[in-house]
Design a protein that fits this description.
The protein is of the alpha/beta class. It has a domain of 143 residues: Rossmann fold, CATH 3.40.50. 36% of the residues lie in helices and 20% in strands. The strands form two sheets. It has a six-stranded mixed sheet. Strand 7, helix 9 and strand 8 form a beta-alpha-beta unit. Helix 3 packs across helix 6. It is globular and about 55 Å long. The relative contact order is 0.19. The mean pLDDT is 92.
Length: 211
Amino acid sequence: MDIIYPPKCPYCKTLVQEHGAWCQQCLAGILSVRDINVIEHRLKYLTACRAVCEYTGGLKRIIHDMKFRQQKKYVIHLKWLLISCKLTDYLSQIDYVVPVPLHADRLKERGYNQTELIFKDWSKEQNLFWMPDLLIREKHTIPQWELTSTDRKQNIKGAFITTRPDRIENQNILLVDDIVTTGITLDECAKVMKKAGAASVYALTIASGAR
C-alpha cells in the first residue's frame, strides 16, 4: 500500500517516513508547544492551557479545510502532531478528556465534530477516559472568529451546560479543541465545569492564534 499510496506531507506533498507525518520544513514552520498565559489573557477558570502548534502556514489551511470543506482525511496528520509532542507531564493528573462540543444544529450541518475526530483515539491511546457527553452546547452561537473580543464573551455566555455534575465533582478535566485564540470559549466551558465541582480544568489545543 505504501508503494501505491506513499506517505506524504499533507501540505507540500513531500514524501515522508510514515502516514500522518509532516516533512521537516513544514513542521518547523508550525510546531511550537507552548503554554498560554491564562492570567495575561484574563481567563478566570482555566487552570492552564497548552497549544501544540501555531495557527499558521499549512496547518491553518488544513484545519480550515477539515472544518469547512469536509476534509476528514487530515485527521491522521493532526493526530500525528499530538503524538509527536511530549505531553506526558501535562496529562499526568487528568481524569477525563472532554471535547468542546458543537451545537446540535451545527453538528448536523457539518456532520461531525472535528475536535472529536482529532482527539478521541489519541486520548484512549494515552489511557485517558474520553467523556464527550459531560458537556453540551445548549445555545446556538455565532462563530467566534466573526466577533470582537468583547462580543465573543457575550456570544458564548451561558452556551454550555453539564449533563453529569456528579461525574465531574473533584475531577481533573482536560478540555480539548482544535484552536485557541482568545481562550474565551475554553474559559466558559471551564466555568461550567468548575461550578459543577471540578477540581481543575486544563485545556489542550492543536493550534494557537493567541498572543
